[in-house]
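Working notes for the structural subgroup meeting. M.R. asked for a predicted model of this chain before we commit to crystallization trials. I am recording the input and output together here so anyone reviewing the notebook later can reproduce the run.

Input as submitted:
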Amino acid sequence: MVATTAAQASPQRSGLRPVRPRRDLAAIADLIEVSFADALDAGGRSMLREMRMMANANPLIWLVARLGGAFPPLGGYVWVADGQVAGNVSIAPAGYGKGFVIANVAVYPAFRRQGIARQLMRAALQDVAQRGRFAVLQVDADNHAARRLYDTLG
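Returned structure, recorded in token form:
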């Protein structure tokens, strides 16, 4: 008989992993709300409501929404700390050419300055590069920390 350790049997508790939309959507909405609270307009708040609604939808609703184009493909990565989403980067088709939009690069304040955003961005950039496509990134001109990070990543 072979015994397994708790670490082998338990799911990933910390680190980088791809987004699992049905599992992660509500946590990503919460993170976006905290991280971008000062910049959210009515459209942003509406998006958060829709994300939370979809997080609670049954699989058939997900299928219908995806087939009808009401819910764009959601990709990206999350950083998990102690089993909870601590950071996120979203990747979505840009809607023109063969590019992708990298958006919602966010890390909860308690987890900042630990290299999490850098690892999320590296994963996103590698993902886009493997697809042979280009990436578009939008950042607030006053977000100096984010701009420094993006500058160091090229």
